[in-house]
Amino acid sequence: MKKRSILLVLLVFLVSLLSFASGVNNVIFFIGDGMGANHMLLASYLEGYELTMMKAPYTGYALTYSADSNVTDSAAAGTALATGYKTNNGMIGILPNGEIVSTISEVLAKEGYKTGIIATSRITHATPASYYGHVLDRDDEDKLAEQLVNSNLSVVLGGGSKNFNPTTRKDGKDLIAVAKENGFDYITSKQELNSYSGDKVLGLFNSNHMNSVTERSDNEPLLPEMTAKALEILSKEGTPFFLMVEGSQIDWEGHDNDVYGVWKEVVELDQAVKVALDFAKDHPDTLIIVTADHETGGLGLSTGSPMNLEMVRSYQKTTDWIIANSSTSSKLKENVKKFYGYELADNELKYVENSSNKIESLSEVISKKANMGWTTHDHTGALVPILAFGSGSEEFTGIMDNTEFPKKIAYLLEVTFPDLIQILPQN
User: Fold this and answer.
1) For residue range 263-295, what is the model confidence (pLDDT) as tens digits?
2) pLDDT tens digits, residue range 150-167?
3) 1-4: long-range contacts at Cβ-Cβ below 8 A with a sequence spacing of 24 or more?
């Protein structure tokens, strides 16, 4: 009986070891910048169906506070998601005491993984930069660009060529040339991306941020298109990989309190998630995680009266576009009538015209018309959703701190990652 018990224990151990070892090889990590649960739910209501990301078999919520505030910025949140450490707002890849910490993508690259980042912002913006950068000030994007071209990333797709171009950098350095010397192929258009067949690419599709999804130019790829190409490149040799994909501009529409803009940006992210899930059908050793760095805007799906979804479905432009294309009061009224379907009242027109931020003020008006409320034009300290699919997804449930993501990914990939330093928020 004793021998049988020992054999049974050994058998259970071997089975568990084999099942773990055959688990995760690839990780696709989606970040909806500023995306709270209500942003996601609003997009689902407006689309009239359950979003792909909402079908996740494992779900939870993440805490987002930074080392020096209950309300994080994207630099501190990105650092937590990439390194497993809390830091101060504004800092990337560096702790409050000045210590530089490794990112999950840097650690995995040293272990032989291919790594990539995608964003619809400048690729040197806070969240994507958190996966390769180390600066005291997130605004030091020229330095971040230099760190990027000297990094071990394999795929980099987004906006922000001005930080790499010698004519627009303060120091005049030609980082495109440096990138090419370091093995990157450089592309600048959707057409070049579609035809690309190499192994290491830097794709910058706008001198600044890419255009919003509703105004994306023909030369700029959509997020699902960039995701599909990145997966093609990263997986073609069978090497395990880590890919971070950011839906950057959900945050900006949240800052504007633009319900139409939030809707369209969340849907673009969801379409990229679908691309990843289609990839995972043929690659079952793939873990897919969707979360956010923080919530933006404090979106409420009511003002005390039911949402007027049909009204929002009739909206056709962001408030940013409306204001940019309304040089006079009469043109503003004309555009609101044409693209939102109603006449601006005199008091509404006066409120927008006299505002220091006409975009935000118009957003307040169109949100109120549809019975949707916001608490702020800034970030909040709200919990953000966690949605996980595929191998290892059962690890991402309940209420987690944002620092747990890279540590759990490292655990699933059997890679050593630095211990967590717990730093409590300061009021």
Assistant:
1) 999 999 999 999 999 999 999 999 999 999 999
2) 999 999 999 999 999 999
3) none
CA-derived radius of gyration, the chain? 22
Q: What is the number of other CB atoms lying within 10 angstroms of the CB of residue 90?
A: 17
User: What whole-number distance in Å separates Cα of residue 245 and Cα of residue 32?
Assistant: 9
Question: Which distant-in-sequence residues (6+ apart) come within 8 Å of 99 by Cβ?
Answer: none
List beta partners, residue 185.
Answer: 201
Q: In angstroms, rounded to a whole number, what is the distance separating the alpha carbons of residues 344 and 397?
A: 46
Measured CA to CA, the distance from residue 417 to residue 130 in angstroms comes to 16
Query: Which of 44, 74, 154, 326 is flagged as catalytic?
Result: 74
Query: For 106-122, what is each residue's pLDDT tens digit?
Result: 999 999 999 999 999 99
Give, as one character, the DSSP assignment of residue 390. E
β-strand 384-390 against 286-291: which pairing, if any?
Answer: antiparallel
Amino acid in position 295? E
- Indicate if the pLDDT at residue 72 is higher than 50: yes
Distant-in-sequence contacts of 87-92, Cβ < 8 A, 24+ apart: 90/136, 90/137, 90/138, 91/135, 91/136, 91/137, 91/138, 92/126, 92/129, 92/130, 92/133, 92/134, 92/135, 92/138, 92/144
Q: How many CB atoms are closer than 10 A to CB 282?
A: 8
pTM beyond 0.90: yes
Closest CA to 73 of 421, 420, 399, 402: 402
Check if the beta carbon of residue 291 is closer than 8 Å to that of residue 356. Answer: no
Closest CA to 73 of 362, 425, 421, 378: 378
Q: Are 289 and 390 in contact (CB under 8 A)?
A: no
Distances from the Cα of 373 to the Cα of 252, 257, 297, 305, 407, angstroms: 17, 9, 9, 10, 36
User: Cα–Cα distances in Å, from 176 out to 112, 135, 179, 358?
Assistant: 25, 21, 5, 37
Determine whether 330 is an active site residue.
Answer: no
Residue that the structure tokens 């830091």 belong to? 87
**β-bridge pairing 295-296 and 379-380:** antiparallel
Residue 401 exposed, middle or buried by CB count within 10 Å (0-12, 13-18, 19+): middle
